[in-house]
Amino acid sequence: MDKKFALAIHGGAGTILKAEMTPALETAYTQGLREALHGGYAVLQQGGSSIDAVSAAVILLEDNILFNAGRGAVFTKKGLHEMDAAIMEGEYLSAGAVTGVRNVRNPITLATAVMRNSDHVFLSGEGANDFAAQQGIKLEPDEYFFSQFRYDQWIAIRDSDAYALDHSNDEGERFMKDKKFGTVGAVACDMFGNIAAATSTGGMTNKKYGRVGDTPIIGSGTYANNNTCAISCTGHGELFIRAVAAYDVSCLMEYKGLSLHDAMQIVVQEKLVKIGGEGGMIGVDAQGNIAMLFNSAGMYRAAKNDGSEAIAIYEE
């Protein structure tokens, strides 16, 4: 049994600049990342599975109002919270995903239930909510998801056709200049050499038409295969869908024999850049190697393995 286990998490990417961050907010984000990292890593240390570790980490991020997932989810055009999530494990390629769900406290828990307790991979909208009720998944009233910060974001642009890509703290036009992609995710390798990925998001502020991003799409925002890698993405979802970004990393490893880092480097810094895809991703392979790459100004991220720990926000 290989004892080398590892976990990495992210809390979104984009125009995250130190000059625009207050010390208090930076401390809060860092603490939120640390809690999620330690929560997921504790599962691995106790001999738990990679799937349980990524789920534990993402639940803690969903429960943190600072991140655009679960409790801190952004508002849609209609002033609602519609959330997406996906989870996948690399041993049997089992996966579960949900999109457009409402009032579900932890969408990643619902995605996990889809994977484990249904014959399906991907459920949407009312059907996904019906399944949540049947499974006894914890629900919360609309007020639980309310964040003044997210509400102010929405009010600034709700009367326009603009949509915001996340954590900006000023009026309308800054949204399109300062692109921020609020998604949370985790990837892990457990002591048995099994890997998994999980991703969760509240989507885009002011989104309409039932828009779906890359997060719940297996192969685009989330993917895991023991033979290659586990990947969780954060970025401008439309471009990550078009690039099939997460699976592309796996393909480069499987068919070209590239390392995790080199495969991610090509997808993030070359392929996505070429089509205007801004954001980043975290990855792990079955040997416990970790990579966290992004082509934006920053990415909330953290990783832990073999006693070493890293938490970062800005480009280094």
From TrEMBL:
GO terms for molecular function: hydrolase activity, acting on carbon-nitrogen (but not peptide) bonds, in linear amides; peptidase activity. Substrate binds at residues 211-214, 234-237. Keywords: Autocatalytic cleavage, Hydrolase, Protease. The active site is at residue 183. GO terms for biological process: proteolysis. The record marks 182-183 as: Cleavage. Transmembrane segments: none annotated. PANTHER family: L-ASPARAGINASE (PTHR10188), N(4)-(BETA-N-ACETYLGLUCOSAMINYL)-L-ASPARAGINASE (PTHR10188:SF6). This is Isoaspartyl peptidase. It comes from Panacibacter ginsenosidivorans.
